[in-house]
Amino acid sequence: MDESSAVIKSNDHHLKTCILNEVRKKKPIFNSYRNFCETVGQDAMEYPDFEFWYYRFYHGQRDFGYDRSMDPVPKTIMDMPVSLMYKITENLDTVERTNLRSMNKSIKEVAENHESIFDKVEITVSGFYLNWKFDSKSFDFIQDNQGCTVYTPNTSQFRSHKNFIKKGLEYLIPFFKIPKIRVNHLSVSMMNQASALDHLLPVPFHARSVSFFAADNNKVIPFLSAFIPGQLESIELKSLHSSHEEIMLKFFETEQFKQAKHVKLRGYFKEDDLWNFSNLESFECELDPNEPVDFQKIKEILPTFPQLESCKLKRHNHRSFLPLETFAEALGEQIPFGSLNTITHRYQIPKSNECLEFTVKNKGSYCSIKIVKIR
Fold first, then answer.
1. Nearest to residue 369, comparing CAs of 345, 338, 349?
2. Which intervals hold domain F-box (predicted)?
């Protein structure tokens, strides 16, 4: 602030003269207040006081010496009954309520009484790029030689001198600190060794469904440990392959897996490996392409799963094309004349009114096998 601004700021008469000048310019009050602050300093006068004198002068009352001490104390939003504030915040969506938390302590406490439920949160990080989305909002942090470029929903873009992960965490960490936060589906993909994200999630974290990819599969078990067993219904592991035998065995022993309903895994499983999925309502995995599919074994195993409703199996045709006639013959189905793209087979479960319906489709490089329990 220059010397003339300091003189104006210290003199009440001068401040009111500046306000009167803003009124005479006939600009909107907010623009006038911003210009006033730029002229005499940001802390020269609070907006409610500026507003009082602005409208007093605007209506032709130019008495600078008016005594405000006898005026009634103006009401603020904080004079509103708590029950009414709660009702108002109840009608806001999750994003609006999250922004409201930053206004002041009292409103923050009211906003935090509501659960913050997000439908979908996605985090992707590579060697030079971090993106995260919650519902319809998207944030991008792209590394360059001088720092990173930031793209947010509220601004087109801006630059930062900070590393892209460090800058991204400035947005991510407060998000995951929202009290009572819940996510219907959380997707995390770490293309590199992003150790900075290791302790991002609060423990315990409320999520119904997760999808996880990590360049380092040793992160799989620590990642899952953040979620509440039983509340986590669906798990998809995109990077963990059945060849990672030690980690896969640890996964099957986690309470998160044991209490899940739906699981999708990669890798080549044999028919006997299907016993691991006996607690699930549905699952997806790949069968070993180096061995023929033993449908008789599958028909022995799956009916013993008490919760099973459906499963999807995939089998790649690695070195040679495997015609569906092979599957039809194994299932005991008659092979129709001409080309064959889909076969359907129903297996009656012994001593039961239920059956398993097998639908096998030729997808070219692989075959898909969908099995549904029919009542």
1. 345
2. 74-121
